[in-house]
Amino acid sequence: MKHYNFYWIILLLAFPVQIFAQGKPVQQKKRKYGFRPELVRGPYLQMATPQSMMLRWRTDEPDFSQVRYGTRPGQLDKISGDKRLVREHMVTLSGLKPNTRYYYLLEGAKDTLQGDSSNYFMTLPLTGDRELYRIGVFGDCGNNSTNQRSTRDQFEKYLGNNPLRAWILLGDNAYSFGKDNEYQSNFFNIYKDNLLKKAPLFPAPGNHDYHDEPYSATYAQESKEVAYYQNFSMPQEGESGGVPSHTAAFYSFDIGNVHFLSLDSHGTEDQNSRLFDTLGRQVQWVKKDLEANKNKEWVVAYWHHPPYSMGSHNSDTEDQMVKIRENFIQILERYGVDLILCGHSHSYERSALMQGHYGMEQTFDPKKHVVHAGGAMGKPANTYMKDAANKGTVYVLSGSAGQLGGSQTSFPHDAMVFSDVTHGGSCILEFEGNKLVSKWICADGVIRDQFIIQKPAK
Ligand SMILES: [Fe+2]
Fold it and tell me: What's the pLDDT tens digit per position in 206-239?
């Protein structure tokens, strides 16, 4: 009898321990043998073209990389991918129809990792096609702040169910050093439920993506130590239009009648040249690309360091910004680039249609440098007319999609016609034929600036 009591006591003591321990050992066992890998990053869309789309995602354990897809949500009748066991998954769907919505589902060895009616994307339109294209522009976004989330929410609210044809990043995408874990918490986790799943991403790097090293000591472009280059796949061989750059650091692409150049203003190129060294590899490629795309109705260039700012950075005193303004932008202006988008300062600063101002702020003279001050017969005051000569560029600094604030004593910069350092936000560009409408959607949902560029009818 004594023995039986002893066994009961042991059993009762052990029972609660078993209950509390139940979930964990089983889960650990699953993980240990890789039975049920879980989706930890993505999916996100890369290298979009009219006929193809790359889907990338990450799992916590090695798994198959398979995508089921089709043009109807309940009928994913095609499959692409492979059965190699990897954690970083990259699958390119090819042979797709241009300008068409596809639904998709990610499939591992055992499970569907993700796939419901919100997993869809649109292939790009054919180069030259003209309809309404919406492009999202986020600068200095990745700091895991309330401002980042509110900016995202208000942008998504404005967009509604309309397709976002490209999602542009102006650099400093993950603070503070662009490390993989920072990309995870400050970028991928924040945008995973909507934008990453649906909108093809075309990023540019900022100084923080290069570990915030001073530019004199920064990493080489495409450095393996820079997570930006591990995380993103670029159309560097002209897959999406444009002249092949053969590097992920800078590249170009077309969205219908709009040509885009994504540039790198921080990493070092061959022979240590940079964006402001006009004999460097990047500038030589920019010239070739602009020459080959002179026939495009619209040309937009974007990179991180702005030529004009008196926000959190000073374009009169900071070397990179001074040199980009003095040496580089005249090349773009010569080719009639319509719009230049930058970040770096954590503000919104926007010019009129201007040209030829390469000096310090005090040398800016609207009579000399403004090509069109806005307004025309029957047009709103902020409508900029470009004539057949295609002269003039609007400069937009939009660097408050996450970070916010900071200004120089001479804020606002004299070349800017609208400046705001107190509200966060992002931009949406709406191209429709010969008209571009750009709106700054703030983190509280208010559109505080918008302008139009109008070109001659085709
Ligand atoms: Fe920056």
Answer: 999 999 888 777 788 999 899 999 999 999 999 9
Query: DSSP states of 286-303 as a string?
Result: HHHHHHHTTT-SEEEEE-
Cα 453 to averaged position of ligand 1 atoms, centre (Å): 27
Q: Which residue has the higher pLDDT, 5 or 347?
A: 347
Encoded tokens for 330: 């005249």
**Alpha carbon of 429 to ligand 1 centroid (Å):** 22
Q: Which CATH topology does 132-454 take?
A: Purple Acid Phosphatase; chain A, domain 2 (3.60.21)
Measure 418 CA to ligand 1 centroid, in angstroms. Answer: 21
383-385 and 447-454 beta bridge pairing = parallel
39-122 matches 132-454 in fold = no
Q: Sketch the domain layout of the chain as residue ranges.
A: 39-122, 132-454
Q: How far is the CA of 424 from the centre of ligand 1 (A)?
A: 15
Distance 106 CA to ligand 1 centre (A): 35
CA of 38 to the centre of ligand 1 (A): 33
Assess contact for 412 and 342: CB atoms under 8 A: no
CATH code for 39-122? 2.60.40.10
What's the pLDDT tens digit per position in 113-149? Answer: 999 889 999 999 999 999 999 999 999 999 999 999 9
- Tell me the CA–centroid distance for residue 232 and ligand 1, in Å: 19
Q: Dihedral of the CA atoms 233, 261, 210, 348 (nearest 10)?
A: -120
Ligand 1 centroid to Cα of residue 450, in Å, is: 24
